[in-house]
Amino acid sequence: MTHFDDLTECDYFGQEHAHALRAVGWLDVDEAFRTGPTDSHSFAKLKELLIDPWQPMVFGGVHECELCQFDPPHSHANLFVPHGSLIFVCPEMIAHYIAAHHYRPPDEFWNAVTACPDTRTMQYKKLLLESGGRTLVPKPG
Q1: CA nearest 131: which of 92, 90, 81, 76?
Q2: Phi/psi of residue 75, each to 5°?
Q3: Is residue 22 part of a domain?
Q4: Is the confidence at residue 40, as pLDDT, over 90?
Q5: 9-15 long-range CB contacts below 8 Å, 24 or more apart?
Q6: For residue 94, is it within any domain?
Q7: Amino acid 34: pLDDT
Q8: Alpha helix (H) ranges present in 7-121?
Q9: Among candidate residues 78, 74, 84, 85, the one with its CA nearest the CA of residue 25
Q10: Domain range for residue 91?
């Protein structure tokens, strides 16, 4: 998987979207990452948002956890968490990184997660657009 430092612009989905996207949880075995405790309520909310998250584009293949020694889990989706004038984007694997490897995402991300509506609602889609996500939504026609 591609590595991004937390809270940096994320051009994984194309340079035209990078200005609105901030990376969280794009970990790599060769890069240090912040660890620490996580609030169980925030983690539960993150897991709710990861149920069928909105995907602006589809990528082929899956990502396996590079931090696990044996039998790593794998995933393929990403989560977009709109917040103010930006959108945090993290790999679906973030829940595993937190639970198994004690990764601690930035507080700004947790604030966005706890305030984020269900990703399958119109409220979420409106917030996504208001937070800079217009370029992520394909134009009709």
Answers
A1: 81
A2: -155, 175
A3: yes
A4: yes
A5: 10/89, 12/89, 13/56, 13/57, 13/89, 13/136
A6: yes
A7: 97
A8: 40-49, 94-101, 107-115
A9: 78
A10: 15-58+72-135
First to last CA, the chain: 33
Evaluate whether residue 1 is within a structural domain.
Answer: no
Residue 6, in any domain of the structure: no
97: three-class secondary structure by DSSP: helix
Q: Which residues make Cβ contacts (< 8 Å) with residue 67, sequence separation at least 6? A: 27, 29, 97, 100, 101
SS3 102: coil
Burial class (CB in 10 A: 0-12, 13-18, 19+), 12: middle
Read off the pLDDT band of 136 (50, 70, 90): confident
Q: Nearest to residue 32, comparing CAs of 130, 103, 120?
A: 103
Taking only the tens place, the pLDDT of each residue in 68-87 is: 999 999 999 999 999 999 99
| Res. 14: pLDDT tops 70 | yes
Overall domain count for the chain: 1
| Dihedral sign (CA 102, 106, 111, 116) | negative
